[in-house]
From TrEMBL:
Identification of the protein by name: 2'-5' RNA ligase
Species, as recorded: Brevundimonas lenta
Top-rank taxon, per record: Bacteria
Length: 252
């Protein structure tokens, strides 16, 4: 099924699905944002962040098989590894650098209540999106009531930390020259454009020429269930993909 894939999944030559072993941000209870509510700040003081879920082996193993087929068709495509992990984005926002520790505390509190590792999700098919002369292939994931509620609770708890007016300086270096305007716009407008009723949970599995993607999409898809292995906050790279881990539930 040809459909839209959010620009945060793309880089110019590859898709970066998650970063490697960047240091985690320390956190402690009882912290709050430096000032409540959406606000303007010096752009050099901002970070573009992605609060996301990392699927378990039930999805990763299947995704790796599909990814290998795509790389046979286009060897320049990325492999799924520690630096390129499939993920589900719950929220992207600009926040103050000084608030990352307090943000981690707030997000951890939500995840303790919502229990992401208890989620049972279902991949229901493939979707693809043309990009340059290639197609990006993703799993379509059913947005269960529990997943939607988790997204909404994360959006609610992050709102007091949200800062308007982020630019290229809020993104981590990722090999691109400057931040993609679409990536900046997506973070700035994730709420409301990709939130609540607009929330979707595709999981990118690879990239290849359209013909190779079409072959896979034409095959019978057997829906499968999977769970969540971890939840995390990542610093987004300049093209809008997760580039550096800031916090992880697994480390709490």
């Amino acid at each position: 099924m040809k459909t839209a894939v959010p620009p945060d999944r793309l880089t110019r030559r590859r898709l970066v699905l998650a970063a490697g072993a960047a240091p985690l941000v320390a956190w402690s209870a009882g912290c709050g944002p430096s000032e409540p509510g959406p606000k303007r700040a010096a752009r050099s003081d901002l970070l573009a962040v992605d609060v996301l879920l990392l699927p378990d082996a039930a999805l990763i193993d299947r995704a790796a098989t599909v990814n290998a087929r795509l790389r046979e068709a286009w060897p320049d495509g990325f492999a799924l590894d520690e630096a390129h992990r499939p993920h589900i984005t719950l929220l992207q926002r600009f926040v103050h650098r000084a608030d990352v520790q307090a943000l981690s505390v707030a997000v951890a509190d939500v995840f303790r209540l919502e229990r992401p590792r208890a989620l049972r999700l279902r991949a229901t098919g493939f979707q693809s999106q043309p990009w340059a002369n290639l197609d990006v292939l993703s799993y379509t994931v059913e947005v269960s009531p529990a997943l939607r509620r988790m997204h909404q609770q994360i959006a609610r708890i992050v709102e007091p930390f949200t800062i308007k007016g982020g630019d290229a300086g809020a993104f981590a270096p990722d090999g691109t020259d400057t931040a993609n305007p679409d990536a900046i716009r997506r973070v700035e407008t994730f709420v409301p454009d990709a939130s609540d009723g607009n929330f979707a949970a595709p999981v990118v599995v690879g990239v290849a020429p359209e013909a190779a993607v079409d072959v896979i999409e034409a095959e019978r898809f057997r829906p499968f269930d999977f769970s969540i292995a971890d939840a995390a906050i990542f610093h987004l790279g300049r093209f809008g993909a997760p580039a550096a881990r800031l916090w992880s539930l697994a480390e709490v």
